[in-house]
């Protein structure tokens, strides 16, 4: 249930509390039909976060100074507070799905929590909950590669062809199965990223004669994808990332 807040209690119940967890404030009025229509969606979204977000309500007629302070020009006006300031907001009676998305942006989803846990069991559950998330799929594939489960790693990233990290993992598996850049991937698994990239770039520049089952153009493309996949984990502004991207571009000609 939502917490009624007034000008006297706003500082403690919203601004101070928002330093501990997000507080969503619904600016409303008794006469406002859209406000009443929005309330069930807001309360359901709050209940679904199980104490990870607080829903407060401000009657703009009874608290005109708060309405003025936060520039409420139309109601319902919903504002999310974190660390004592507004971090997101919307106006109008949004449909329930968009209200849920608004709350999702404020608190970690169950998938986020499982991704943070990082073990394979948690990642598998996260993938089942949010199968469209490439970041979860990639983390699961990496966990499976750590125990040598290549087929399961490929299964994890299947359907994420638009993600560089996912396609990089798929390329890695195909290359390793053809006996290409095996030492580079072993270095990567040891956390030796730069030596792994150096080895992959050297491999890209070689002729690759005798590689089993791969045409030269396929070998070249798979190496490119593997390198780009590794680089996708780096901040684009990172000097190391920029240097390796320049080397990759030169190698590709």
Would you give an account of this structure?
This protein has 253 residues and is of the alpha/beta class. The protein has 13 helices and five strands. The chain folds into two domains: 3-104, Glutaredoxin (3-Layer(aba) Sandwich); 161-252, no CATH class. It has helices spanning 10-16, 33-48, 64-69, 96-104, 110-117, 120-129, 134-146, 150-157, 164-177, 182-189, 193-205, 216-231, 239-252; strands at 3-4, 23-28, 54-59, 77-82, 85-91. A five-stranded mixed sheet has the order 1-3-2-4-5, sandwiched between helices. α2 (33-48) links the parallel β2 (23-28) and β3 (54-59). α8 runs antiparallel to α9 (164-177).
In terms of topology, how is this protein built?
Blueprint: E1 3-4, H1 10-16, E2 23-28, H2 33-48, E3 54-59, H3 64-69, E4 77-82, E5 85-91, H4 96-104, H5 110-117, H6 120-129, H7 134-146, H8 150-157, H9 164-177, H10 182-189, H11 193-205, H12 216-231, H13 239-252
Parallel strand pairs: 1-3, 2-3
Antiparallel strand pairs: 2-4, 4-5
